Amino acid sequence: MRQAMHSFAWWPMVAVLAVAVTTDLKWRRIPNWLTGPFLAAGFAVCGWLHGWRGLGQSAEGMALGLLAYGILFWLGGMGAGDVKLCAAIGAWTGPGQLLIAMILTALVGGLMAMSWALSSGFARELLEDTGSLIVTGARRYRERAADAGPGSGPEPESGEKASRPRRKMPYAPAIAIGTLLSFLAR
User: Fold this and answer.
1) pTM of the model
2) CB 94 within 8 A of CB 6
3) Residue 155 neighbours by CB distance under 10 Å
């Protein structure tokens, strides 16, 4: 299944990732009109080529993308469009290749973030905010585990950190590079 799906998925993947990178760089959004049909097409193609087994692989890939990137979204470290894009990629590639793509994406994204922060002069803030994301995520988990109720979270920060401009790096380029590299790694 892997080889046939691998070659069949390459060109649709390249096309969708090119559009996702363009929209994310230009508008900081990955549109639903792109990710929704791509997700559905992944299920359709995998089901058509490999029957129920293909549908199962698509479901597992989608679930892995939703779970892993959904946690990052919940922590505030990723946008919803990134989550939906990764779920759609998982529907095309299955969980095995998506895991490789996510590891490569994390490496590429980390390098891109550090380069961006160093060249823009806010590397210290990036490191502080990453630590804060981890602490905030742990706090949110504890609050929800203690039945704090939906929508509860940490109090908004005050002072210098709250007044800093929020810098968001478009993550679709990292997702695209990591995903396309995962095709070469297989």
Assistant:
1) 0.78
2) no
3) 6
CA torsion sign, 90 to 38 to 23 to 180?
positive
137-175 tens-digit pLDDT: 655 545 544 544 444 444 444 444 455 455 678 999 999
Residue 43, domain extent: 2-122+167-185
160 occurs within a structural domain: no
- Could you tell me if 101 and 178 are in contact, meaning their C-beta atoms sit under 8 angstroms apart? yes
- Has residue 175 been placed in a domain? yes
Terminal C-alpha separation, the chain:
13
Asked if residue 23 is part of any domain, the answer here is yes
Number of compact structural domains in the chain: 1
Residue 89 falls within a domain, yes or no?
yes
CA–CA distance, 74 with 136 (Å, rounded to integer): 10
Are the beta carbons of 57 and 94 closer than 8 angstroms?
Answer: yes
CB 61 within 8 A of CB 98: yes
The per-type count for the chain, helices as H runs and strands as E runs, is: 6, 0
d(CA 176, CA 178) in angstroms, rounded, equals 6
